Every structure is written in C-alpha cells, then in structure tokens.
Amino acid sequence: MYFEMYIYLMKNIQYSLLELATLKKNNTAADAIERASQGARHIDKLGYTRIWLAEHHNMEFIASSATSVLIGHIASQTKNIRVGSGGIMLPNHSPLVIAEQFGTLESIYPNRIDLGLGRAPGTDQVTAMALRRNNLNTAFYFKDDVQSLQRYFSQENHSSKVRAFPGEGLDIPIWILGSSTDSAFLAAELGLPYAFAAHFAPNMLKAASEIYRMNFKPSEQLQEPYFMVCVNIIAADSNEEALFLSSSLQNLFAGIVTSRRMPLFPPTEKTIFHGIPEIEQAVQSMTSSTYTGSPEQLAKSLKELIDEVHAQEIMTTNYIYDDEKRLKSFELIKETFDLINQQ
What we know:
Elements: H1 2-9, E1 14-19, H2 29-46, E2 50-53, H3 67-77, E3 82-89, H4 95-108, E4 113-118, H5 125-132, H6 142-153, E5 174-178, H7 181-190, E6 194-196, H8 205-215, E7 227-235, H9 239-245, H10 247-257, H11 277-286, E8 290-293, H12 295-309, E9 313-317, H13 323-342
Parallel strand pairs: 1-2, 1-9, 2-3, 3-4, 4-5, 5-6, 6-7, 7-8, 7-9
C-alpha cells in the first residue's frame, strides 16, 4: 500500500503541523481560516510532511469544527503536503459517512489525504450528547468503528450490501490518535501508525511509546511501528524571544484550565496567571511538552525527545500571535530538523 511504501522511503525525522484554526483577539472565523491557509501554503513550500486539522466543537475561538470541509479547503490551497485529520473524533460520526467524506477528498487530492482517528468527543459532555444524539456509548465501539472504516475502504467490500462511494478501494492511511495507553494498545493491535497528543496531555507519552512499540503487530497498511509525537514548538532567532512569544500559548492554556476560554492574545512580559500557584502548576502540567528557542537549542532538546520515545515524526502546534513571526517560526523549525537530520 502507498503508506507502507512511503514509510520505507523516509530516512530522516519528519516534521509536520497540527492546525486548529485558532482565532486571534478581535478576529473572525474567516480570519482564522485564512491564517491557517496562509500557514499551510508556507509550510508546503518549506517541505513539511503533513498538516492536520483538529475536530473541536462548541469552542468559540476554534474554527475547525467542520473538519472534513476545512481539510478540503487547505488541500485546495496547497500542492504537495499531505492534509488530514488530527483527528476525526470517530464516535461523533457514522463510519460510512467518514468513509465517503475521505473517499471524496482522496478522489480530489490523490495520495495526499490522511485519516487520523480519535476516541474523545472533542468537546464537553453536553455537546457530545448533541453530536451523538444522546448516545454516549459510541465511544465504547471505537475499535469496531475503525475496523468498519477499514472494510469500507477495502476492495474486498465489493460484495457487501453497504459500500462507500467514493472510498472503496482507495488507499487512505488510517492513524490512531491518543493521549493514553489505551490508544497505544489499539494502534499496536491493529498495526496502524500512532500519533500521541503530548501537546496537551504529556504525562503518558513514554509509557504509550513503549506499549505501542512492544505490542505492534504488522498489518497490510504497516509492517513496522510508526510513532509520531505532537508537541508545542515556539521557534525564534533567540531563546529569549521564543520564550517571550510562548506566553501567548501559556495564557491560552490558562483559559482552558480555568474554563474561561479566550482567543489568542499578543505575548506578555508576565503570564496572566503569574503568581497564582494553582494555575501555574496546572498550565505547566499541560504544557510540559513545549519546546522554545533558537534552532540550535530546539535541535538539542527535540533530539533528546526523539531518542527517548523512538519517534519517527514530530508534529507541532503553533500559537504565535504575530503572523510574520509565526511564518518565520515555521522556517526556523525547518532549520531545526535540518540540524537534527544532519546528526
């Protein structure tokens, strides 16, 4: 299959972007989507491997709720980079609908579409009930739903009474996403590539990596484990500037832990929660997989992470407020991985 051949062609650590289409202060959803498109066009030219869009719901300052629609838009704005979901929260959807949506995307943008799947709702429980029409038990059938998707994409499904058009027979790589050891066991059992969300839930990263690698069973899609880690990276010309820029990320996460979500604000000399130990500790716990600095500093710290968890790919978020500094950060991240891959 395409993904398997693609893996074996790669020798270096790959680098990619997770995009949430986060709204800046005083911006609209249209502004956020255009900003995401601008970033996608930029990293496409820089040679990033993929850009994924995340599914979130009932969040005023995130514009990626219609994830499949946004994937199509980003794919139309780019030429080479792979575009996919990071992820589709599968319990919110019928597997048949997702097979048709991604079959359509793959038909329009061949060999460029990824399908990352998560078990979480991507929202609060009340909204999850609205999405799942009061059936919250769908999360318990995640494995079954993943396998249903695989069947819909398979050529062998041609004799079934229910088939996915477009979708059947198309080579769309399926990934398992997660932030716990449960997802690691599932990805290993199904022989699928695994992406870990250390950018907001870093605590089980090392354990999940070991479980995935030790329990991996080869599959038609993948012969060897393929592990991607998503972290927060803030790159700048100097370590001091990168640390300053990262305050926008820290302030954003403070809104999450205090249930007072906010848009992306300009950086501040001191974080808005400075001197409040409870919030400082909570934010630090959520963002401990955040890497700031110049390319030289980042190359050193990220290489240590890569070696520790045996990652083949790093995916980064980017919560830099200033548009030009954000684009510059993408360039410096490329320089970082150039340094890593020269070692």
